[in-house]
Amino acid sequence: MSLTSSPKAVSSYTGLPEGWQIRISKSHNTEYFYNPTTQESTWNAPEGSNEDLLNSYVAKGLHNPAEVRVNHLLLKHKDSRRPASWKSESITRTKEEAIEELKEWERKIKSGEVKLSDVATTESDCSSHSKGGDLGFFGRRQMQPSFEKASFALQVGEFSPIVETDSGVHLIERTG
Q: How far apart are CA 108 and CA 100, in angstroms?
């Protein structure tokens, strides 16, 4: 069987084929579907969507939330605004070292070797480590701008790329 004839994976959260996102049109104030990899957009559900799951997801409003809930893994570095944590009184790694370490955790998380919440419990420099990196629900303007932007851009079950803030570098998973 060739790769082109195999069906694409469908998100168990949104019902959309892999790579597709739900966005809100500013001019029409309604949902549309966008694939950032191919830069395709459509008003109709893309081919291969699970329409029952997609309709349920849209009906719940999860694609345009007033609040989101995330787990995150924070790695601080010596130039972080507070280069100390529950693990270390003085963090000396460089930003580049923190990014490289986070890239390795990202690879393991995305491959399914480990869960972000489990890694956060032992490796995160945030006080949320004791809750698996869970920050609870938060709304707009409650987090640093780059963290907020990344969190609200995710759909439930998705992971962010590495996000830099004054606190350090993060990997974010939207959970609600």
A: 13
Indicate which residues carry an active-site annotation. 72, 126, 144, 167, 170
Condensed to tens digits (0 to 9), the pLDDT of residues 114-131 reads 999 999 999 999 999 999
This prediction's pTM: 0.66
Q: Where in the chain is the domain with CATH 2.20.70.10?
A: 3-59
Contact 39, 48 (CB under 8 A): no
Q: Does domain 67-174 have CATH number 3.10.50.40?
A: yes
Q: Report whether pLDDT(8) > 60.
A: no
CA-CA distance, 23 to 33, in Å (whole number)? Answer: 6
Rg (CA), the chain: 18
Residues 139-148 have pLDDT tens digits of 888 899 999 9
> Nearest CA to 21 among 9, 35, 11?
35
Residue type, 61: G
* Cα angle 106-71-20, degrees, rounded to a multiple of 5: 65
Helix and strand totals (H; E) in the chain: 4, 7
